[in-house]
Amino acid sequence: MRMFKEGVDQAAGIKRMTNKKPVRVIAIASGKGGVGKTNLSVNLGVSFCKLGHKVALLDADMGLANVDILLGLHPEYNLTHVLSGEKTLDDIVVEGPHGLKVIPASSGVQHMAEIGTMEQAGIINAFGEFGHDIDMLLVDTAAGIHGGVINFARACQEVLIVVCDEPTSLTDAYALIKLLNRDHGLSRFHIITNMVETLNHGKVLYQKLCKVTDQYLDVALYFTGAVPFDKSLRKSVQKQQAVVESAPNSPAATAIKNIAKRIDGWPVQRGAGGYLEFFVERLIQGESTG
Ligand SMILES: Nc1ncnc2c1ncn2[C@@H]1O[C@H](COP(=O)(O)OP(=O)(O)O)[C@@H](O)[C@H]1O
Ligand SMILES: [Mg+2]
């Protein structure tokens, strides 16, 4: 009975969204943790707002949520309250700098790290009701290549993969790309190299990854940019501010702002993929195919 109701709610939710305008949905993923996904998500989110976009940032790292911490926000509620039915997505959204709408996850709830199908269905329902007017949704994913990460990543139109110069970062990025390609047919990936010494270092790293994917997979990797290792970013983390706000002229902030401008220039994908409901539909497909 409960399952039946979920199905009805989902269909209704999708229908409600069909009248809304296109929303570009971008996943930020990496395979390995600690490479800078959350910092990039937050800073790209703020940068897109400053470019005039209406942006929501979904913290999809249910095990180690920290988008809110990085921005010094103190959300009273989070996705667990949406999943339990106590709150709607609109209730839990907290406003970050320049109007960035942060959808907080729960911190430190270990069993939530791998969200199950019912939880995903709950998130799907919640998006159906989402009342905010946005034109961009960024999804900061968890580390690893488990079901939750894969489902979120495959549901987005664009996948940004963050890598840094560590062998495990490259091998984990490769494993993630391979899985998304082999099991879900994704063939285009955008690469950001982080914590690099120079732009050239970043490009070399990207080429290293391309060399392996070219050899074994039929995918296209696009270089989106390199972000230098920068103490200003660490300091901003301590101050709980986005580096593009607290040190806007620092090397990392400059690089991230340029990446945001580059992404802003990407052509909007035509077809069903240009809409928020597509994100939701793909999540449902993920659910039904396991
Ligand atoms: N460009 C950078 N320069 C210096 N430190 C960085 C940079 N990017 C990320 N970091 C640091 O790396 C750590 C992990 O970043 P985080 O965004 O939490 O990674 P992830 O979300 O991939 O786990 C943080 O302590 C952050 O301060
Ligand atoms: Mg993170």
Q: Describe it for me?
A:
This protein is of the alpha/beta class and 290 residues long. 49% of the residues lie in helices and 16% in strands. It is built from 13 helices and eight strands. It has an eight-stranded mixed β-sheet with strand order 3-4-2-5-1-6-7-8, with helices on both faces. Strand 7, helix 9 and strand 8 form a beta-alpha-beta unit. Helix 1 packs antiparallel against helix 13 (276-288). It is globular and about 50 Å long. The model is unreliable at 1-8 (pLDDT under 50). The chain binds adenosine-5'-diphosphate and magnesium ion (MG).
One letter per element, helices H and strands E, the order comes to HEHEHHHEEHEHEHEHEHHHH
Poorly predicted runs of 5 or more residues: 1-8
Give the overall form: globular
For the biggest sheet, the summary is: 8 strands, mixed
- Look at the helices and sheets and give the structural class: alpha/beta
Provide the helix percentage: 40-55%
Number of helices: 13
What's this, in brief?
The chain is an alpha/beta fold and 290 residues long. The protein has 13 helices and eight strands.
